[in-house]
Amino acid sequence: MPVRSAMTEERDSTDRFDTQLERLQRQFENISRMWDLERFGLSESEMTSIGIDLIDHGDEFELTANVPGFDRDEIDARISENTLTITAEREAETEAKEELYLKRERAHRSVSRSIRLPEPVDEENVTATYENGVLRLTLPKQQPSDVGGHTIEVE
Question: Name one Pfam family in it (predicted).
Answer without folding.
Answer: HSP20
